[in-house]
Amino acid sequence: MSRMVWSLLLGLAVVLGAAGIWAGRVPQGSAGPPNGLPPAPAIGHPAPEVSLTTTAGETFALSALRGKPVVLNFWATWCPPCRAELPELQAAHERYAGEVIIAGVNQAEPPASVIAFAGQVGLSFPLPLDVRGDVSRQYAVRSLPTTFFIDRDGIIRRIQIGPVTEATLAQALQVIFP
Amino acid sequence: MLPILQIGPLALPTYPLALLIAFWTALEISSRIARRSRLDGDHLYNAGLYGALALIVAGRGAHVVAFWPAYRVQPGEIIGLNTQAFLWGPGAIIGACVAAWYIYRHKLPWAQVLDAAAAGALVGLIIAELGAFLAGNGIGAAAELPWAVELWGVRRHPVQLYAALGAALTLAATLWAARRGLRGGTAAWIGLLGWGVTTWLVEPFRAESATILGGLRTAQVIGWAAVIGALWALRTRAQRAQTPGGSSSRNR
């Protein structure tokens, strides 16, 4: 191809490329809740409502926590990686008390065994009891532990499958609690 | 959507599995194409493996530096198996540097190496995008089109399939360049051009994009820069080939 054709191609690439980038830019202020998305256990979607009774006999309702970031962890006492991450979640609950809500949704276990286990380990954050497993199914939890990081507007911003460590918890919290 | 592959008692995360398959396939194809160019395919394999090892080590190292107060409390996690504890950006840069050092150290011809690596990388990209589609990663923006896919009650662009198609067309173009016996390195520049065009075209259809400078999509800017760079290089090479006494396509 001649020099002129190459130069024309280059010029077109510069101009059209820049125009395409400008046309495809993300509108400012669109970081807020997406309009019209249905609740779903997926990043960018509003988190499905959770309404369960905790080990303390209180009602845990996700909608009532709007305005604060929420770390929603799904776990069970029989799950070794779940047990391994509980100290990190407890430490985060104490460190961010009043600013970030840490909640551990127990999956389909008898309340008495969960209460006994929580006492042994020294857990003081809310432990909603998903006795029938309905919420776990609603959140499509296929392996334990699974943790959903929900921002102040109730939007899921990060999902972690597998245990959290001090470092990965700090990294994930940056997304919902910058 | 299939984020987890259940095989008996095993629950395998789909996307990481697809990335692993993509990586090994890319290495295998790159080394086979290298052998056709009378290069030692094992060198490309080794460069890829060393680069991947460096990616993992550097990615973990960067995570440790970024979150040092947490690792100081849990030093055992520095070598822990948590697959979330990596910063892939710095890891990729170091991995690429290590692979490049290997190629330099063994005095391999850059043009032929990049031609072989381009084809392998594009095959890997196709597999990775198909894996992302299956797993529901990197989803597309909402759309009401006949070919839109439904995810969580919303019909969306199958943006991963768009990217895979772009990579497939680019692969065809690079293989065509290689078969035509064009000057060494041309296939790699064509590969970069195709990747850049695909990225520039596809990124606006993604549901979420990293942005810079007030909303410009980062990947789209990088794709645009790749297109300009590749066109510039191809123009320069074509002009040199046309210059009296300049090099010809036999220079492979």
Which spans of chain B of ≥5 residues are poorly predicted at pLDDT below 50?
Answer: 246-252
Q: Might you state the CATH topology name of chain A?
A: Glutaredoxin
Structural class of chain A: alpha/beta
The beta-strand count of chain A equals 7
The description of the largest β-sheet of chain A is:
5 strands, mixed
Rg of chain B, Cα atoms, Å: 20 Å
Q: Count the DSSP helices of chain B.
A: 8
Strand order, largest beta sheet of chain B? 1-2
Number of helices of chain A: 5
N- and C-termini, Cα separation of chain A: 52 Å
Q: In what range is the share of β-strand residues of chain A? A: 15-25%
Q: Mind telling me the CATH class of chain A? A: Alpha Beta
Taking all Cα atoms into account, the compactness measure Rg of chain A is 22 Å
Largest interface: A-B, 42 and 49 residues
Overall geometry of chain A comes to: elongated
**Helix- and strand-based class of chain B?**
mainly alpha
Helical residue percent band of chain A = 25-40%
Question: What's the helical proportion of residues of chain B?
Answer: 55-70%
Q: What's the order of the H and E elements of chain A? A: HEEEHEHEHEEH
- Average residue-wise pLDDT of chain B: 90
Question: In a nutshell, what does this entry contain?
Answer:
The complex is a heterodimer of chains A (178) and B (252). Chain A is of the alpha/beta class and 178 residues long.
Give the SSE map.
The complex is a heterodimer of chains A (178) and B (252).
Chain A: H1 3-23, E1 51-53, E2 59-61, E3 70-75, H2 80-95, E4 101-107, H3 111-121, E5 129-130, H4 134-138, E6 146-150, E7 156-161, H5 166-176
Parallel strand pairs in A: 3-4, 4-5
Antiparallel strand pairs in A: 1-2, 3-6, 6-7
Chain B: E1 4-7, E2 10-13, H1 14-36, H2 41-66, H3 68-73, H4 88-105, H5 110-135, E3 149-151, E4 154-156, H6 159-179, H7 186-202, E5 211-212, E6 216-217, H8 218-242
Antiparallel strand pairs in B: 1-2, 3-4, 5-6
